[in-house]
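Support request, priority: normal
Reporter: lab tech (M.K.)
Component: structure prediction queue

Hi team, I submitted a job for PilW family protein from Luteibacter flocculans yesterday, and the status page still shows it as pending. I've pasted the exact input below so you can check whether something in the sequence is tripping the parser. The sequence length should be 396 residues. Please let me know if I need to resubmit or if it's stuck on your end.
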Amino acid sequence: MTPSRMHSRLLSATRGFSLIELMVGIVISIICTLGMMAAFSAYESQKRTTTNGSDAQQNGSFSTFMLEREIRTAGSALVQGRNYGIWGCAIDAWSGGTKRLPLTAALAAPFDNWPLTTRAVPVLVAAGTGDKADVIGIVRGNPIARTFRTNMVSASGTTVTVDNTMAIFPGEYLLMSDKSGKCTFGLVSTVNGTSIGLDTAGSASDGFSAPAHYTASLSAYIFDMGVNPAVTLFSVNQTNNSLVGYDLLQRGAASGASIAPYPLADNVVQLKTLYGLAATPSDVTVDSWVKPTGTTWGIAALTPTPDTQDANNARSRIRAIRIAVVVRSRQQERAAPASAASSDVAYIGYTGSTTLTLFGDLDATLQYSVTTDPTYRYKVYDLVIPVRNNLITKFF
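Reply from support: The job had stalled in the queue. We restarted it manually and it finished. Here are the results:
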């Protein structure tokens, strides 16, 4: 091989890429990068949607579990008091030396549509107008033993004498009624024979004494509500989108102070309800549904002062509550563009509906239409919850 030919081969081997080859390589790299980024974008979008859906499902499941548990057990320890003045009585309650019930002023949102007087009824609903969430109120006890009414013999200050203290223990709450339409909560501090001492941390300063809390000429009865009775409200805080509860008894609050609502689940945006009604107070089968509104089923009609037989009959027909809980994804979705710039470009985006219809399987008069943000995904949980203690029609 001649030196000139060898030199030519060496130059050819070391000259590198040409400009055209380099540009072709860059174009191919850009195309591959764009393809990879499109795949990553599609994957992340699907991942975000799946994660948001999973979060919404967890929040919805937990919310409905909490509400179902409370509504199913509503009325425990009350049901056999129907013939002894406790059913539907206007509750008086104290904690920390402060009278808590009846309320002296409307509560803050979202419970501002709850009435000042709370009655001892398993479950009632205060309807929210328009897109405002409903408020569900439940009353129940949890005594260690089912003690059927105890006769109150006398009351002097914070000492109460009864005919039998079986299954009544310190730390439990009692509910006393005398068929006058009122009933009073008291917290047990001591039990000695047939004498019960009341603790002013959860009782009036004068206990159950007459005439402030009962009429001496009437027979008074005491029902054991257990250590953790519930007089609780549930609704949706639509400012921060959370399901919240509120303890009307305000246990643990200092004198003159109050305890704020407590969160139960986040990303809950709406709560709407229907009453399931029996034809008469003695029937147990639900044969119609109504909204908790109007001159018969609105909260004002069901909790009048003074109480009426019509209101009592209406309350006694409630056999179930149907609830719709609306939950929302945590993050906004990327909005879909109005039109694509090119038919060759695939846009990934989402635009939802601006309204949701709740209870869509029922007559239009029973449905709710709620406003939604189209940049979020929503899920509706719809379930029927029997009020089991309202199904009892045999009383002692």
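The longest strand covers residues 182-192. Residues 19-73 form the longest helix (55 residues). Let us know if anything else looks off. Ticket resolved.
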